[in-house]
Protein: Phage tail protein
Organism: Nocardioides soli
Amino acid sequence: MPKSLADGHSKLTLLTAKPVDPFNPTVTELNAGVDVSCAVLASDFTWSATDSDKVNEKALCTTNNANAIGASNFQAGLTIFREFDEADGAVDPIADVAYQTVKEKGTTVYGYLREDGKLATQPWVAGDEALYLEVLTDNPQRPQNAGGYIKRRVPMEPQNGGDVTVAAATP
């Protein structure tokens, strides 16, 4: 199979209610979530594992450092484009659903990122691989460069996460 460019192939879905089993999400749960793929700025999107903690486990006879791998670490944050009503310029609560989902500090969301050969617009199907992160949102921030579209950066603190495979819809 050929390589695939990343452009347009990152699907991010946020759930506001905890899935029955976050490490085994179903097609039904994910397709009912908030698809924020087209609302997130690509250039500063962060949703990844980072280096795990290290535990020094050097034996007495070892002449170099020897670390064991400890707790996993993750990083997350995103910038969301805001959506407004064309008629009066007020926030459009339906079109602005991505921001409305993460705008309050301390909100827990369960996010799933699929990056493969499928376009972001394609629905979740059983067997899709994703990176799951449970995150707490921080205060939205106005970007330093206020040019371009109106948007807000939302820092996040991962609480749990890992690689998952999407399960079939529950009967």
